Amino acid sequence: xxxxxxxxxxxxxxxxxxxxxxxxxxxxxxxxxxxxxxxxxxxxxxxxxxxxxxxxxxxxxxxxxxxxxxxxxxxxxxxxxxxxxxxxxxxxxxxxxxxxxxxxxxxxxxxxxxxxxxxxxxxxxxxxxxx
Length: 131
Prior knowledge:
By secondary structure, this protein is an alpha+beta fold. It has 6 helices and 3 strands; from the N terminus they run H-H-E-H-H-E-E-H-H. A hairpin with a 2-residue loop joins strand 2 and strand 3 (83-90).
């Protein structure tokens, strides 16, 4: 019996495909940006976000454009004390997609822990986050 037919017979086809790992989010810099914004729902200035994520101006701008095109963040340009200021916020749909992504990522960790026979206490300690 082949591995493929064994998977089909057990109903496990695609079990580890993890379709919920959103490709827009699943990139280190964008994951950092979204995590920063989820933990600061009122938003962050461009400078604060750049510092929190350890990104250059150009890299942050590029990743924010991708997230903005995906309707995950909104960018508001304004003036503060006669200086231009850019405020970045996560959108409601961005928050929803981020939390769905985390649920999938948590499933990956649980599956890997089960497969590696990691201490059961570690697996039980994983709880879905509700940022």
